[in-house]
Design a protein that fits this description.
Layout (H helix, E strand, L loop, with lengths): L1 E6 L4 H10 L5 E7 L8 H4 L11 E2 L1 H6 L3 E4 L7 H10 L2 E4 L9 H8 L6 H6 L1 E2 L2 H8 L4 E3 L4 H14 L8 E7 L14 H4 L4 E2 L7 H13 L5 E7 L6 E8 L6 H12 L5 E3 L17 E8 L4 E8 L3 H15 L16
Parallel strand pairs: 1-2, 1-4, 2-3, 4-5, 5-7, 6-7, 8-10, 12-13
Antiparallel strand pairs: 8-11, 9-10, 11-14, 13-14
Helix pairs in contact: 1-12, 8-10
Length: about 350
């Protein structure tokens, strides 16, 4: 069995990794790390895991020593030295933060305020969006797990951009996320009285996932891509709904668009292209690694409306990390990720 270690195991993404790995046929949770809860059992913090994962959270070095693959579910800025340590120890490292997502150091400095401490590691890092970059992930030893929005938006837009069916300029990504996306830490905006019966934008036009999405779409279509990204908070626990608007090229029909999306996503295990007339809904992907995509036309402005829905804790975080582990280690890509979403 593959020994999996999780740093930041007591956060939402780390705890979700535990849930998924408990059902993995070829991997087991070998060690957990938590700076804030060292010495405490995970099941003490998450009673749902009682009798399933009673492992006690330890310190970072012990987690790396006991593991074949190390997942870092940590805030941005904390993973670069851990990645170096894992490289020296011969461990597969999957970073669920942003430290290795951006290819250009100037972008990382602009959006995250840091630099590349080990440029050679950044050059080796594979960007872990399997549906677009599968071959670069196979056999990789350092994987940058994409952000949740930076998964949903490219999966909604990539086929149209790659086929040249829409303009790469003037794209709008209007997205909404469940509250787990903002993390487990307590803040005023997370209180029930603040979020219940509420929907509000945040970081409009300045969210850190913007350059990551543009980078991915640029790689897909080979052209510079500019988009306006506005995320919103929904009073739900899980889910991301990305409603993306892109101007269709002159003469392009929805039949051509659907053909391009069918060719791109028809053979994918975790991306489901919905039939004409259906709309993506976060309820239908909850607790699963699926991303549902629906396509719509604004005939008045000749605009494609591409909508994607995913669970921000699974395909947008822990599930995609497991998918990347499977690819890197030569396992069935869907191992541990076959649970169906609940029907209601």
């Amino acid at each position: 069995m593959i020994r999996a270690g999780i740093l930041g195991a007591t956060g939402y993404a780390g705890a979700e990794l535990v849930r998924l790995l408990l059902g993995h046929p070829a991997a087991r949770v070998a060690a957990l790390g938590s700076k804030n809860f060292e010495g405490r059992a995970l099941s003490e913090l998450y009673p749902a895991y009682a009798g399933l994962c009673d492992a006690v959270c330890g310190e970072q070095d012990a987690v790396i020593e006991k593991s074949d693959v190390v997942f870092a579910a940590l805030p941005s800025g904390l993973s670069q030295e851990i990645a170096w340590q894992c490289r020296q120890a011969g461990r597969l490292f999957i970073d669920m933060g942003a430290d290795f997502r951006l290819e250009r150091e100037e972008d990382y400095k602009k959006w995250y305020g840091g630099g590349f401490r080990h440029p050679e590691l950044h050059a080796q890092a594979a960007y872990g969006l399997p549906e677009l970059f599968r071959e670069s992930i196979r056999g990789a030893r350092l994987i940058a797990n994409p952000g949740c929005y930076a998964t949903a938006v490219p999966l909604a837009l990539a086929p149209a951009l790659k086929a040249g069916l829409v303009s790469p300029q003037g794209i709008v990504a209007d997205c909404a996320s469940g509250m787990t996306g903002s993390g487990r830490g307590l803040k005023q905006s997370a209180h029930f009285a603040e979020r219940n019966e509420s929907m509000t934008p945040y970081k409009a036009g300045c969210h850190r996932h913007t350059p990551e999405m543009e980078q991915t779409l640029r790689r897909v279509c080979g052209r510079d891509v500019k988009l306006t990204f506005v995320p919103h908070l929904l009073p739900v626990s899980r889910g991301i709904l990305a409603t993306c608007y892109a101007r269709l090229a002159p003469g392009v029909s929805m039949r051509q668009v659907r053909e391009a999306y069918g060719a791109a996503w028809g053979g994918e295990r975790f991306v489901r292209l919905l039939p004409e007339g259906s709309a993506a809904d976060i309820r239908n992907v909850r607790l699963s690694n699926f991303c549902d995509v629906s396509l719509h036309l604004d005939a008045h402005t000749h605009t494609l409306i591409a909508v994607s829905a995913l669970d921000n804790m699974v395909k947008g975080a822990a599930g995609q990390a497991v998918q990347n582990m499977n690819l890197a280690l030569g396992l069935d890509e869907a191992a541990g990720l076959t649970a169906a979403p609940p029907a209601f």
